[in-house]
């Protein structure tokens, strides 16, 4: 075995240990916690009188959302431990119209991580599921899931959360039937790339032929899955929401309300269209977006523009686009984005009228 120590003025030091510490430090600096600390340090230096208000604002908002976080984490851990994601595969069996409807409905309930979406869809395509049903699932899945629903309700209220859930299903139906009509006209005769067989992070995705075990606590392996998912998802949501509420505090304190009102404060098509177009390149994590939008709405952003921004941003998220791009050809990817933007504008207009 090669010697792993090096001599310097301070004595000997294991090379592997030094590199490991350096790598861990670099990873830590990329986390939301590091961003939060950097933001608060900047406020402390540049505007020390506002530091306390910023911290108190973020802490109170996070405490208010804590009950939703706890329920969401418990629900997601339960779904993972029972293997309930296997039920989603059953939506892609039967007549095409039925598949589109069920795919749109279940897209928002699927407890998949971003890497699991790719092998799951790849498996369905390999089994012959129609592109129309897959598109319905693709469009609705990034928009809503149990944790996102609860966090959106905590930050923006239940009317907004329910409106987003309805918009997710409606967008899935819209996209699924649009693709079905295009394929009937001869489009997408060969839509697929080479189908991938494994997950992007090595997890391989959910098993399509598995059966849920609702009383999971009888199996040690499933209990371990529940504990691991509870801890990992809890920390994930906590760090992103803490960052979101710190950013919201900055937004409320430093961004002029009249500026936001001028750009996206109207209730016309223009403001909603601008919000959708801005939302796509300025994608925000689905757990970060609701608190920030709450701050924007307090500053004058219209409800319809907020809905359009959130939907367009979710459709254009990197995991969602990666899932589509990795499996289908560019023209199908372009249709996916086009349907997402159009659906976001329509959803924003309808939500503006409803509220």
TrEMBL record:
Localisation per UniProt entry: Cell membrane
Keywords on record: Cell membrane, Membrane, Transmembrane, Transmembrane helix
Any one Pfam family match given in the protein's UniProt record, by short name: ArsP_1
Cell membrane is among the record's keywords: yes
Topology class, membrane: Multi-pass membrane protein
Entry's family note: Belongs to the UPF0718 family.
Source species of the chain: Antarcticimicrobium luteum
Keyword GTP-binding: no
Protein name: Permease
Coiled coil start-end: none
Xref: InterPro entries: DUF318 (IPR005524), UPF0718 (IPR052923)
Gene Ontology CC annotations of this record: plasma membrane
Organism domain of life: Bacteria
Segments traversing the membrane: 28-46, 58-79, 100-129, 230-247, 259-284, 305-327, 333-354
